[in-house]
Amino acid sequence: MKKSRRLYCILLPALVSASANAATTIHPMPTTCPAVQRALAEVNSFPHPDNWRVVVVCSPATWAELKLISPALERTDYAFTLRTLRVTFINSQAYDWVPESQMRFVVAHEAGHLVCGCDDEDRADREARKMLRKRSVPEVESPQ
Questions:
Q1: Edge-to-edge strands of the sheet including 79-82?
Q2: Domains in the chain, ordered, with CATH?
Q3: Are the beta carbons of 42 and 54 closer than 8 angstroms?
Q4: Most buried residue among 74, 99, 122, 129 by CB atoms closer than 10 A?
Q5: What is the pTM of this model?
Q6: What is the CA radius of gyration of the chain?
């Protein structure tokens, strides 16, 4: 697993289908999406495979569109991972209303899916807590 990750931000509406490899419209590190730098720092602090992509979604409309992929995604406003596509999406807007410690847990939770190789939310939470303990970061609960 690699410690550095290139991060992308969606600037225009994009659709991801089951056969797609990633979002259709991405731009590296735009200045119009201030959450990118904070998300990048969090993502790079957790282990993840070399072939994994992280996409920071900078548009509320695009986030809403991405959540239509699956009914299970309706209950998240922060981040989600599509393991079969090897991509994690982070909602940049969440950095405006979710405390930093909880966003750290959200990113650790998504990395937990990679570590356990599963879609099980409880297992991803356990992996997130392990990773945070290793970093000596106080544990927080996932945002509700």
A1: 27-28, 7-10, 53-57, 87-91, 79-82
A2: 7-134 (3.30.2010)
A3: no
A4: 129
A5: 0.73
A6: 14
